Amino acid sequence: MFMKHNGQPTGFSLIEVLIAIVVLSVGLLGLAGAQYQGASSTNDAYYRSQATMIGNELAERMHANQPAVDNNNYTPINIANAQTYIDTSPAPSNCDTTQKKTATSCDTTEMAFFDIYRAASDINQRLPGGTLNITCADSDTGDTDVCTNGSPHTIDVSWEGVKDGNIITQVVSIKVTP
């Protein structure tokens, strides 16, 4: 009835089990780190795509409102805090053609203000710590015009991102010659 034991241990020892748990734990920590890095990269890509869409939409609106560009209604613009800009600026005329109101009811200056206000509103809603800067590289510095007609503009949309636990400023720059 009794089996002879020939002196060789069978089964797992407690040390082997502990080593297996440590190895498994290290593997799971590595997996969690990879998941975190993936989520962070996805978040950064989302913000970058939103900034690109906002900048491109503003560039298209500038192309559509050439008289306001020529009158320097779009430049220089420096909105260091989109939320503060929205809170302190008067509400623009409703020049939004998607609201079944024709854009012809707004003059070019009102349309430019509406475009900038809308971009600031989009930045505030979609980008943490978002800013908007529009600059002009004047093609004729010999005249008194701040931005001579046909000069290239740069639209910078920025936001606060996180890298290695530090807050950094990310920027999307769009060059446009309206």
Provide a concise account of the structure shown.
By secondary structure, the chain is α+β, with helices and mostly antiparallel strands.
Q: How are the elements arranged and paired?
A:
Elements: H1 14-64, H2 66-70, E1 77-79, H3 82-88, H4 108-126, E2 131-136, E3 153-163, E4 166-176
Antiparallel strand pairs: 1-2, 2-3, 3-4
Helix pairs in contact: 1-4, 3-4
Kindly estimate the percentage of residues that lie in beta strands according to DSSP: 15-25%
The total of helices stands at 4
Shape: elongated
The class by helix and strand makeup works out as alpha+beta
- Catalogue the unreliable spans: none
Query: Looking across the biggest beta sheet, what order are the strands in?
Result: 1-2-3-4
Radius of gyration: 29 Å
The major β-sheet equals: 4 strands, antiparallel
What is the mean pLDDT? 88
- The SSE string, one letter per element, is HHEHHEEE
How many domains make up the coordinates? Answer: 1
Give the helix proportion (percent range): 40-55%
Number of strands: 4
